[in-house]
Amino acid sequence: MSKIPKTAIRESGFDRAFGAINVTILLLVGALCLFPFYYVFVISFTTPEEYRQGGLLLFPKTWTLVSYEYLLSTSTFLRATGISAFLAVVGTLCSLIITSSLSYGLSRKRMRGRKPLMFLILLTTLFNPGIIPGYLVVKELGMIDSLWSLIIPVITSGWYVLLMKGFFDSIPVGLEEAARIDGCNDMSVWFRIILPLSLPSLAAFGLFYAVSYWNTFFSAVLFINDTAKWPLQILLQNMLIDSSTAMGGAAASDTGMASIPSETKKMAAVIISTIPILLVYPFLQKHFAKGAMVGSVKE
């Protein structure tokens, strides 16, 4: 048989020009989006003397960690960071347990009351009770000024439950039946079969929950009156207003760093608050595109 000759697709001059224009525009848009982050990063490492000279700083002559040393030497900033870390870790674990177990139960037809419960969950995605009823519920439960007031009211999401239910629907019931024949009970099936297959889903929703808890702001404004229990985002907002008051006032004089400009301290605080999510995301990204059933069923 004679081989069919391969003909290369030739682009016209108009196509090449159009592609070049698209690439140029996208590069400009990308640069405009990245420039604020780069500017914040540069200012956070700028020396106080160079910053006071004014002008647009694109690359500092001398890099310094003085703003980071100041922030990490203050108990106020460290305490707020620890509270945000507690919310992100404990809140994410609690949310994943509640969301995954509820979604798995709803995905199995043998569960009693499945349809009414599904209807109630669907209602939560359509109607929001509002700020005042939510505040009254938290107050009546005695959780004002408690960190649990930032976790329990948002411990799960109806939308996430429905999405994860669709994930569990794709797991064949035959896997559970085979496990029960081998002597597994419901808890063994859940921990040995379902959870290992659910790693991609748990990683994706875990990242969503972690980002939400780490960025907790409005709930803390409503429920937390004690400044010693402020999460990091509340502290950052107050630093934008008055950094000396937000950091406790005396911290700078105690550490001999009172001459540091407030702007460099604010930029350093923004970088520190962004780093944890940037570090976690690459480890979870690989799970997003993975199929849950790869290698679990042999045909």
Automatic annotation (TrEMBL):
Transmembrane portions of the chain: 20-41, 83-105, 117-138, 150-168, 189-211, 267-284
InterPro entries recorded: MetI-like, MetI-like_sf
Gene Ontology CC terms, in alphabetical order: plasma membrane
Any one GO BP annotation for this protein: transmembrane transport
Record keyword Chaperone present: no
Keyword Cytoplasm belongs to the record: no
Record Pfam families: BPD_transp_1 (PF00528)
Keywords: Cell membrane, Membrane, Transmembrane, Transmembrane helix, Transport
Localization (cell): Cell membrane
PROSITE patterns found in the cross-reference section: ABC_TM1
Domain ABC transmembrane type-1 positions: 81-284
Entries under CDD domains matching the protein: TM_PBP2
Membrane topology: Multi-pass membrane protein
UniProt cross-references to PANTHER family, sorted A to Z: ABC TRANSPORTER PERMEASE PROTEIN MG189-RELATED-RELATED, POLYGALACTURONAN_RHAMNOGALACTURONAN TRANSPORT SYSTEM PERMEASE PROTEIN YTCP
Family (UniProt): Belongs to the binding-protein-dependent transport system permease family.
Protein name as it appears in the record: Putative aldouronate transport system permease protein
Species, as recorded: Paenibacillus endophyticus
